[in-house]
Design goal:
The protein folds into two domains: about 1-90, no CATH class; about 105-165. The chain is about 70% helix and about 5% strand. The protein has seven helices and two strands. The protein has helices at about 1-20, 20-25, 45-55, 60-65, 70-85, 105-120, 125-165, and strands spanning about 35-40, 90. Helix 1 packs across helix 2. The termini are far apart.
């Protein structure tokens, strides 16, 4: 009975280790995964992971964890330790929110993106190309005006701080 269970578990482990998709789908949603780290499943060393999992004494693991919940917890912890060793990770820098963009610049961005799609779909259309270039010019000038306004405001605030003025 135990031998049959171990054979079944080893078949499942082999299937999991051979494809990173199954690992991602089955184990990414567990509480173990930190929100600030993502695994690069496509770069994992699954052959080494498979060899390491094959060399684990599963009889001993099941002996020391006789209940199903304890056995599952032990299996998860062993698997996550191996994943930490054989699957590279990279940090994810999450911003709390996007920086606000003025409405006229957001509209210009959408218009530019739509014209770009049309231009890519039909690159020989000179009218679309001209409209896209005009839109890019308008976008760049609006962004430049916004940067100049912010720079002027920062200079005014800096001058007030240097001169000792306050807005109280």
């Amino acid at each position: 009975m135990l031998n049959t269970i171990l054979q079944f578990v080893s078949v499942i482990i082999v299937q999991l280790c051979l494809t990173c998709f199954y690992l991602a789908v089955l184990f990414v949603n567990l509480n173990h995964v930190e929100s600030s780290v993502r695994y690069r499943w496509h770069m994992g060393d699954y052959e080494s992971l498979h060899l390491h999992l094959q060399n684990i004494d599963w009889y001993n693991v099941l002996y020391h964890n006789p209940s199903a919940s304890n056995g599952w917890a032990a299996f998860k912890s062993l698997l996550w330790l191996d994943i930490e060793c054989y699957v590279p990770r990279h940090p994810v820098w999450k911003t709390k929110h996007r920086k606000p963009v003025p409405r006229h610049i957001a509209k210009c961005t959408v218009k530019k993106r739509n014209l770009w799609r049309k231009l890519k779909a039909n690159p020989c259309n000179s009218a679309t190309h001209m409209r896209y270039r005009e839109c890019v010019g308008a976008y760049n000038s609006r962004v430049e005006v916004l940067k100049n306004k912010k720079l002027r405001l920062n200079n005014i605030l800096l001058a007030q701080v240097i001169l000792g003025y306050s807005n109280r």
